[in-house]
Amino acid sequence: MSIKRLFCESFLFSGIIKKLGELCKKSMLLSGDGVLQDLYESSMTRKLWDKFSSADDPAESSIYRAPFRLLERVLNRSLSWPVDKLMLLLFALYLPIGYIIRNYLGIALLSSVWEELFICAGIAVIYAKGRFDRVSSVEVFLLLYIGACLLLCLINRPYPSVAFAGFRAQVEYVVWFFIVIRLIDSKKTARWMVWLFAGVVFVMCLHGIYQYIIGVEVPTSWTSQTETAVRTRVFSITGSPNIFGDIIVMAAPSVAALIYYCKKPIEKIIAFGCTFLMCLCILFTFSKGAWVGLIVAIIIFAMYCDKRIILAMGTAMAAVLAVFPTIVSRITYLFTNDYAEASLRGGRAMRWELGRNLLAEGNKWLGYGLGRYGGAVAMNNQLLDETEEFAYYYLDNYYMKTMVEAGYIGLIVFILVLLVLAIFGIRSCHRSGIGFKADRSIDPIFRNAGNDKLICVGIFSGLMGVLVHCYFENIFEEPYMMAYFWGLAAVLIWYGYHAGKDS
């Protein structure tokens, strides 16, 4: 017999304990418990306790929650809101936005970080949209270039802060290729962004023509003493006629493509008028490098679309030289002894020679050091004393600047990236036209109406023109120029390799 059973059958349990239990149930103490419970249920004390216990967390309705509620709404609705299109709109307005922030808002902190915030916003939109599966060989080589620059930054850094600033200037804005190619969701969106960018540049060209009419005052350093016939050089809101000319080189072919792409004659006439005004404005920049870049862009565009453009360009150039003697003097000055002497004293010849000497002083493969000479970072951080043999300059050649700072390794990888972009750009021009049936019996101006290949050819021509101009100027020293270049490159590659999947 177990102890538990023995206890339950014992006299102590069955007799005394059970008897005490029955007495307790009948006692006043326990019999009044139900009455007290009923009174408590309806009492003020119970109501106060319930109110105290069921009260919400005050943070739920406080100001502290407001930003989190806003973030939740943004994330929950991002799948239905056209935030990707908004980002592309803002990207097309990159230059005007930056100009307004720097010159009108007057907020120093915002001026210094808005571009990084913009990049972060683009990445956040991509995350919200879940577009991670679009890959390209171009971005693989861009990652290789970023990795090479990072390695050079870590190896060759006599001044670490300057090296990091040089690395940032060299690679930060190529990130827009990764962003834009994932923001586009249809051909309509892609066309809309390209034409919006071209529209921004066209408005700037109208402003530039106005500057030429009023003869806007420019620094004397923009013209030589022998070029007295050049009364002004237009620059719109860029602050530099060379950069302004280059942004026209990038946009003008896309506007010219509309002459062939649009279906209605009135639209073709408007596109032709806009193209003419943009070409006229680039003349008034008096940027020789931009002129060369535009000629190259026109030749590439003509070889794809309409070879008659080359003849038209030759005729237009002859007419321009006859009408604008200042342009003649600007060009002929290149072949004078005065220009050669000026170039050796403080021009490109002297600067390039100084760059080669600095490269020879260090390791030619690793370079003189990112941010140390030839670009904006070096100009802002002049760490070495200037002498008769040494002075800080812009090298006015982005390839030379890359070679001096990043050595042969940096230049080779950069050229490799551009070569891959050119190869896949050509392929995109071809692939974007597959499926479009053109009637060869119709004039090229009309038979390509609605052919997306024209959009790609316009972008590709402009990008190649910019790369030619980079031989004469530090074009990519301007953040918006590098952002626009790689953003449009992303549109070009998207058209060739992702349009069929997304549209």
Structural features, described:
The structure is a single chain. With 503 residues, this protein is mostly helical. The protein has one domain (88-341, 396-502). 71% of the residues lie in helices and 0% in strands. The protein has helices at residues 3-8, 11-25, 28-31, 33-41, 44-53, 66-77, 83-92, 94-105, 108-129, 137-155, 160-171, 175-183, 187-214, 241-261, 265-284, 288-304, 308-323, 325-332, 337-346, 348-361, 376-380, 398-432, 444-447, 453-469, 479-497, 499-502. α10 packs antiparallel against α22 and α14 (241-261) runs antiparallel to α24. The model has no long low-confidence stretch (mean pLDDT 86).
